[in-house]
Specification:
12% helix; six-stranded mixed beta sheet; mainly beta; disordered N terminus; 11 strands; PH-domain like
């Protein structure tokens, strides 16, 4: 994870960039989703918005539209890798690793390609760092990971 100043640098909160955890065995499959590495698989969080890019897919929402976060996982590899949409809940996963992710719940659904998602799972390398950055912006959440 790197912390970078950016255009969203207001009130002393610089833009924070979080790289996705990309499992070495998952990389060939992730290329099908346009993910080549940290240059196009990241989450930026600034004072005003969250932007998640995962290869050719992207989701952006204002901070005011984020209702909460929850760290979850780990999951089975086959259910966690790639860009996925849950049939039951219509949430979207940007999955580079099965080890866990931060679920970000939206107050109003956010456009991801042709879909409107009520939540997105972000499998960043620094789960606690992203959760803390959301908390620092006044967004409540919990760490609900399974222990393995």
């Amino acid at each position: 994870m790197t912390s970078q100043p950016g255009s969203g640098d207001h009130h002393g909160m610089p833009t924070r960039r979080f790289a996705y955890r990309l499992g070495p065995r998952s990389r060939p499959l992730l290329r099908l989703f346009g993910v080549s590495g940290p240059e196009n698989a990241w989450v930026d969080l600034d004072e005003d918005s969250l932007t998640a890019r995962f290869g050719w897919a992207k989701a952006t929402t204002p901070i005011s539209n984020i209702g909460g976060w929850r760290i979850e996982g780990p999951w089975l590899w086959i259910t966690a890798i790639g860009i996925r949409r849950s049939i039951r809940h219509a949430d979207i996963t940007f999955g580079g690793s099965h080890r866990g992710g931060v679920r970000v719940d939206f107050r109003e659904p956010v456009g991801v390609g042709p879909f409107k998602a009520p939540a997105v799972y972000l499998t960043v390398e620094d789960l606690q760092g992203l959760a803390q950055a959301l908390t620092d912006r006044g967004i409540p959440g919990t760490d609900a990971r399974k222990s393995r």
